[in-house]
TrEMBL record:
Keywords: Cell cycle, Cell division, Coiled coil. The keyword Oxidoreductase does not apply. This is Cell division protein ZapA. InterPro entries: Cell_div_ZapA-like, Cell_div_ZapA-like_sf. SUPFAM superfamilies: Cell division protein ZapA-like. Residues 63-139 form a coiled coil. One of its GO terms (biological process) is cell division. The keyword Cell cycle applies.
Length: 141
């Protein structure tokens, strides 16, 4: 089992993981470290367990918010797909039977827009992942 040293909130921890999961553990540790560092900057020094708990809760809160946004976007996408399917059916019927199918004059299809804050967060996550990959690459023998 690989033994890794990770840093969270300026504190080092020795952890174990399954072979091949080192990258995922380092990525998770980087996310946790970012939240812990933010906490320490705002509150100051605190016991390890409290720092880890609070940082974990902050990440869980962000994850829950992103899951809510994703659920909303999926619902809006399903609605748009249903509208497109309905328009496609009308078009096929009109092409198969010219002049016999009444096509609505105005067919409105809304395309969902990804919220700007979600795009910003995804961009930040991508930057964090790239920074982590650079750190891992620099640390590799």
């Amino acid at each position: 089992m690989p033994d890794l040293k990770i840093t969270i909130g300026s504190r080092d921890f020795d952890v174990f993981c399954q072979p091949g999961e080192e990258h995922f553990l380092r990525t998770a540790a980087t996310l946790l470290d970012a939240e812990a560092s933010l906490l320490i900057g705002q509150i100051g020094r605190m016991p390890d367990i409290r720092m880890l708990l609070m940082a974990g809760l902050m990440i869980a809160d962000k994850t829950a918010a992103m899951e809510d946004q994703l659920r909303d976007l999926r619902a809006r996408l399903a609605e748009a797909e249903a509208q497109v399917a309905q328009a496609q059916t009308l078009l096929e019927e009109a092409q198969a039977n010219p002049g016999t199918v009444e096509v609505p004059v105005e067919v409105r299809v809304e395309v969902p827009v990804v919220p700007e804050d979600l795009l910003d967060r995804l961009e930040q996550l991508a930057e964090d992942a790239e920074a982590l990959a650079d750190r891992v690459e620099d640390a590799a023998p």
